[in-house]
Amino acid sequence: MRPHTRPALGMEAAELDRYWRPRDLRAALDIRAGEGARPLAGGTDIYPARAHHAAWEGSVAESLLDLSAIAELRTLERDGRHWRLGAGVTWAALRDAALPPGFRALQQAARQVGGRQVQARGTIGGNLCNASPAADGVPPLLLLAAEAVLLSPVGERRLPLDRFILGNRRTVLRDDEILAALLIPAERAEVPSAFVKLGARRHLVISIAMAAADAEGRATIGACSEVAHHWNGEVSPISDIRGSAEYRREAAAEVVSRALTLASAA
């Protein structure tokens, strides 16, 4: 497959971005490994970041691998003992799907990710690979004991989600790999859950603190440290423009309490 090329804003004409949009996963894996192209799905994180970089620091040519045409990455179905959530499933598709009560926290998070336009384009896999400390999908997926399925031309590897995300904007994804799906144990998907997000407003906002919890008493917390994690009653929160560490410590306990109450009442 020949890539499309176009001049990168602010660069010499000889320096070009390259763009691929394959329709099958095998071709995508070959391009990823052979060209080192950056995976792209909805673009709701990548394109704003590129625009900011171009405006303030100068554009950098980059090869992009658009995965949005690969139907295999958009599956959402029961697969034996697991639910398989394709990395290309959009927030809107997840939001509107008929799913067991264990997905309720994830679906509630989906309704609060950006606005309707972002929900229609943004994907689960993109949210995880972007690895923001405030990624709304991470606490509900941790609660569901999700396992990341990573594919490369040489095979597959699986990792618990808490081993996939390493820190702020850092994952274990190798240069030849694509995040293909999340596997969720079927039994976890049956336990009612809830999601609570604290921000300056409900939509189009980055969380100050958020929590997911289920009816069996498990809880996870996000936006309070570099990586979302399981809640054990303690948190070492960060301070930033959205809130101080002291405020986040109190907020974390409150959103966990609310999420547990909502999950138990479901």
The averaged pLDDT comes out at 90
Quote the beta fraction.
25-35%
- What is the topology, as strand order, of the major beta sheet? 5-6-11-7-8
Number of helices: 9
CATH architecture of the largest domain: 2-Layer Sandwich
Span from first to last CA?
50 Å
Q: Could you please say which CATH topology of the largest domain applies here?
A: Uridine Diphospho-n-acetylenolpyruvylglucosamine Reductase, domain 3
The CATH class of the largest domain is identified as Alpha Beta
Taken in chain order, the helices and strands follow as: EEHEHEEEHHHHHEEHEEEEEEEH
According to DSSP, the number of beta strands is: 15
Q: What global shape is seen? A: globular
Q: Report low-confidence residues grouped into runs of 5 or more.
A: 6-16
- How would a textbook summarize the main sheet? 5 strands, antiparallel
How many domain regions? 3
Q: What structural class should be given to the helix and strand makeup?
A: alpha+beta
Using only C-alpha atoms, the radius of gyration works out to 19 Å
Proportion of helical residues: 25-40%
SSE blueprint and pairings:
Blueprint lengths: L3 E4 L8 E5 L4 H11 L2 E3 L5 H11 L6 E4 L9 E4 L2 E5 L4 H6 L7 H7 L5 H6 L2 H7 L7 H6 L3 E6 L2 E6 H4 E3 L2 E2 L6 E8 L7 E6 L10 E6 L4 E4 L6 E2 L14 H21 L1
